[in-house]
Amino acid sequence: MVSTSIFPDIQKHIPVMGDMNLKSPIAYKATRAMASVVNATQMALAEAYIHGLEVPDSVFRAAIDTSLPVLFKHCPGLLAPYEWVLQETDRIAESSRELMQVQYDRPQAMLNQMLGDWKVIYPKYSTGFWENGATNLEESQMHMLDQVIERLGIEDGDNILDFGCGWGCVPNYILSKFPNVRFTGLNLSHEQCEYMRRKMQDPDSYLSSGRFTLHEGDLNEAHFDEKFDKILSIGVFCHVGNLTNAFQKLASFLKADGKVLIHIITVRMPNHMSSGFTHKYIFPHGRYWNHDAIPNHNCDLKTVQRWYMNGINYHKTLTDWLQRFDASQELVKSLDYGMDYAKFRRIWRFYLLLLGTIFATCDGEYNGNGQYLMVHA
């Protein structure tokens, strides 16, 4: 990780290196200009790939493996292509409706094939945990959820809110482990909610137990009449633009002695990170918060413990998703993606290859997942 404590007076005048918030006006503007050039170059390569440029996966990965360590270690300011990446935005969730359209409301049959859809582990769009000996994607997702249960301290009888509950994988798995736990899921994606509503009518699903309540809506407008023992959020905070307002909202839902566990992609660099390609095609206004961002927002909620999950876990997960995605083409090529399927396929191959390689860069020590246990401040 780049140190900003060595020669701080010199570093504030040097573009690109170190913490952008400490830069002099001239160094800041120079870094922003260079970041725009890097972003334009990445976008040109991405667009060429999307429109048919043939690049072997091995060459693609080698190019990223060669360039990204330099950016992670020495030039982190170049990984923030837009001004909004570096600071909080006005709303809790930015571009949330657009995000549902381009990402989470894609054809369910395709997502089932890519992410996996099993008896207890439903499609889950976040990393598995492979370090405990998982031999396949399903096991890695179980191991990840077992870790969440332990770190959040879930007990039988808890009333839990899942902020951004996806397809209900987390509630379903935890309900299977605890016969008296109650869950409320909050989700803006209509297609994901429809998937869960079908499961709520399926006697083989734990979502049909009467202990699961679904709210289709946005955290910006969410209100609940009851308070919760535990709140968990897996992956969603990459789409949250304002940590201060989000923590205030979550704190209002939490009992006085309650606990919150937030699991997100983080970067162990001085600044936050994003990508012009993912912003345009995959996660509008998505960003990867600096690993210290959540502990630095000790207002309404405070961090009492945190963990870093090495990026190799997400590398293995994304690699598995890519293999499953490629293997399913004959089954899913006729579905409605709102665009020519060949273009859609190349967009998503670029996305899975790009992120899968980034997480493995520098042995997963710069870009991975952060988990934060929080209580009332």
UniProtKB/TrEMBL annotation:
GO terms for biological process: methylation. It holds the Pfam family CMAS. Its EC number is 2.1.1.-. The keyword Methyltransferase applies. The keyword Methyltransferase applies. Keywords: Methyltransferase, Transferase. CDD domains: AdoMet_MTases. One of its GO terms (molecular function) is methyltransferase activity. InterPro entries: CFA/CMAS (IPR050723), SAM-dependent_MTases_sf (IPR029063). It is an enzyme of class 2 (transferase). This is Class I SAM-dependent methyltransferase. It comes from Tumidithrix elongata BACA0141.
